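Morning, I've got a small favour to ask if you have a moment. I owe you a coffee for this, so here goes:
>
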Amino acid sequence: MSTPKPVVVYGASGYTGRLICEYLREYNVPFVAAGRDKARLQDALDRIPGLDTVDHEIVEVSHDVEALTELFRDAQVVCNTVGPFSEHGHEVVEACVRTGTHYLDTTGEQDWLISAEERYGAQMAEKGLLLSPGIAQMYTTGEIAANLCLETPGLDTLDILVFWKGYPTVASTKTILVNAALSSAYHLEQNEYRPWPADGGVQDVTVPGHHETGLALPWGGTSHPVWFKRDPRVANVKAVGGVFDRGLMQAVPQIVAAALEQVKDLPEAEKLKVLAEQAAAVRDEMPPRENQRINTSLDSVHASGPLGRAHCVIHGTCNYKQTGLMQAYAAYSLLQQPPKRVGFASGCQAFGHRELLGVLRSFGLVSNPVLTVHG
């Protein structure tokens, strides 16, 4: 089942996986669309206009290390969208270690990022391979904004906000519930992880460009505290996010609380089964394809230090398209040259924040950042 094609999109039948395939077509990169159900894969790819213009194939594969190792044997990059990653990610990375394949994924699950670095970071670095979870709009676009702020020396504290207008996918809904039930959420305080309150509710936040305030949640803490814990410029990081739909934000804590109540006394395997059922009850079908005039995104970062301040806002559109594009670009870049950092690294650490910004700008998915610096 080995393939001569350089990129494998694992989980290509999902919403984000399909978009990665679309943008790989834009870069004319041959790829394998892989997953556990060939019929679903075929149906998803049949919906991509013009896909016949790029060399690709569809492969059904079981989710175990041996089968994935065989699939990845001749590939150079794997784009993994099969989550929750704390539950399903280990087999994929282990296969990448065996085959010498770069690993990318789309999640901000803190427990997965921390575990992935501890278990595989050194092995991947020794082989000159990239291990980069969390290349996605919800994390990377905000990371770009943070790095633009940090170009001003003397700033050590990041206050990060991400907002979007749209709907969660089937996979992200399940990930939210699994994270809430099985893992802690952290922010960074003086380079140490500090837990968010387990019973913390929505927070009122100021949304740049809007008169109305918004509601936000820590969303499991996101990947930012993990990435910036290894940045000598940064000591403190808090990241929160939300959707512009205030009613939906008010309902999220209730949905999560009800799910947690159902699984609180169950063994872990049974918890996962019940949480999957709960997630399906919330979202059991793909959301509508994004509309560039409707599905907007906003990333805002306040960076501060003892004697300075900077604020960066990036207005964008179609957060899932941003994710698909950055995944495809990262794979395309890795086929041309080594990353800026091997082993465990964020999108900006591996490819450069200005390079990734340029990619998003060139495809018309974000506006020019608004950067204000004081002090």
Q: What stands out?
A: The mean pLDDT is 90. Residues 246-263 form the longest helix (18 residues). The chain has 13 helices and 16 strands.
